Every structure is written in structure tokens, then in C-alpha cells.
Amino acid sequence: MSITTNLLEIKKNLPLNIELVAVSKTKPILFIEEAYNAGQRIFGENKIQEMTDKYNKLPKDIQWHMIGHLQSNKIKYMAHYVDLIHGVDSIKKLKEINKQGKKHNRIINCLLQAKIATEETKFGLSFIEIEQILNSEIIKNLEFVNIKGLMGMASYTSDNNQLEQEFSLLKIFFNKLNNNLDIPSVEMKILSMGMSGDYNIAIKNGSNMVRIGSAIFGSRT
Ligand SMILES: *Cc1c(COP(=O)(O)O)cnc(C)c1O
Can you list the domains of the chain with their CATH numbers? Predict the structure, then answer.
């Protein structure tokens, strides 16, 4: 199967309100160009350096999403172009994003990463920590940060019940936040959940943005 075929097949079955992030990490420019020529405009990467390199070489109407674990000291390298940062997991990083946004005079869109998986290896904030951040005074002073929603990664499991449970808990929390918000720089619009193996379950449980890599570009070695 070609990238074009994979992409069109996935898009054909994706509900219209679901945003597709094509996860191109580790894949060459040529692969991204093929997806671009098939109409894809949102790409996700997990390393800032690799993403910036690709940004420099590819058409400027691509929207680049940083989906990986963030390192504060590297945020500056993508601040001038990144479209959405999915994996924000501390006030410290929000402050650094704000600082870099200010330098470039652009508001940077972010998602807070919630920990929904049971595995120790998955990063993210607990629901309580997310509420603490949203209720903090600091958040009101971050003029160059726009929090657009939440991101979550489910456990690596074939147990569909567990996946449903993890996704639906995050959706319930997302809705709850939505009903209790009144900070100008925070809106709960985007709920980023679902990857190649579990995106159909994620969509059934309230996701409106899926991050799909291997099902489009083939497996990573
Ligand atoms: C790699 C990655 C994906 C895509 O994974 P696939 O299983 O290849 O679809 C999605 N989200 C995050 C955060 C990732 O790191």
C-alpha cells in the first residue's frame, strides 16, 4: 500500500469533524511530500530538531504539531512556526512557551497532556494537576500562550474495554472543564486522542483530533 492510498482510505472513514495529524516522525521528506500532494496539511513530529529541519525544507502552508515530550531548552527553536504543541505538562514549560511567544510576537497554541495510561512510561498530568494549572494566577498572565484543549495517550494494550475507559474518562473531564471555564486564554476545544492502533475507539469516546503515524507511513524501525 502506498502512503496516498493509506491516507485516502483513513480520511474516507474519518468523520468530518475529526482533525487528522499525520505523524511523520523518523520518516523522510519524500514521504511527507507524498502525503502533502494527497492533500494532507497537518503533520506531527516528536523531536524539535527534526521538525525544524523538515519545516525549513517543506512548503510553508504545512501546520506543524509537536506531539513529543517537550524539553524546555528547545522550545525556542520552534517558537516562530509551530502550530500546536500537544505535550505540555508543567507550568514551567508554559512559562517558557510564553517567553518564546513574546519574542516572536505570536500566540502559541498548546494542549495540556493528561496521563490516562496505567503505564509508568507515559508522561502527563493528573486531572488534579490540570485543574491546579487552570486555576492558578500565573495562567492569566501568559499572554502569548493559548491553551486549546487536552491531549492523552492510552495504554499500549489490545484490551478494548480498558482503552474505552481511559478515553472516556478524559472526555468526561474535558467536558467538565468546558462547563467551568472563564479564562480568556483557555478554551477546551481540542481533545487530541487516538493513534494508529486505537483511533476508532478514541473517536467513539469523544476525540476530535487523531495522531496517526504508522497506518499512513508504515511501521517505524
Ligand atoms: C508516535 C506517536 C503517535 C503515532 O503513533 P502510531 O502508532 O504510529 O500511529 C501518536 N502520538 C504520539 C504522542 C506519538 O508519539
Answer: 3-217 (3.20.20.10)
